[in-house]
């Protein structure tokens, strides 16, 4: 049985005071909820104060939104795995679409970060997901080309770009990671077109990709590894669509952006998850 796991990615939001209010408000609100793992991922600068404000044996864990793979040294602006552990982080997000597409991180760099996190004893949440144009390439397209007055050539193109992208990000992201280490990895399927847009994947779309991801894990590792791995969905998840998303057989939890910035909405989601 996979235990549901819901994490809030605060991104570059909150300030020092609101970060504490949000964390402690959430901890209080979910104190009696059992059977679900919960984490919050504040900006780096608030990690320590948020972690300190939460009770050690409480049910809210702390995660970082990124990490660097080197241990220490001349890497201006970067944060190491040991630094994250030093401030009581247990999770770290790797490969978030904003890091891939806004900052320009490659699969190779994301793999290095994911591996470094595991080696240090952190639990990575490896994000994968297709862009809008990649999702749209999946639609059967009909192209009509006038070759001359009398001939119209129609051809159909069936592509499966979503699977191709997710499979590549998974294979590259997990390169060199053993089956034993995989037990500490969470995969987050986050279609880029659904992140922060208010457009959520339908439960059929989410289930289809989650099942596919589990299949890739079975191929890369084993059936057992595939059965055990937690696969979160992310992309405009909110209280209104949590029940439907969580009813999918292969959706084991959520990675939440906007709706994780308010105690009430995130509490609702934790309750439903
Ligand atoms: C995210 O940033 O991981 C995310 C899913 O954001 P939102 O829920 O706001 O779409």
Automatic annotation (TrEMBL):
E.C. code: 5.3.1.1
Function: Involved in the gluconeogenesis. Catalyzes stereospecifically the conversion of dihydroxyacetone phosphate (DHAP) to D-glyceraldehyde-3-phosphate (G3P).
Gene3D superfamilies: Aldolase class I
Keyword field contains Translocase: no
Binding sites annotated in the UniProt record for substrate: 9-11, 196, 236, 257-258
Residues at the active site: 96 (electrophile), 190 (proton acceptor)
Catalytic activity reported: D-glyceraldehyde 3-phosphate = dihydroxyacetone phosphate
Enzyme's top EC category: isomerase
Protein name: Triosephosphate isomerase
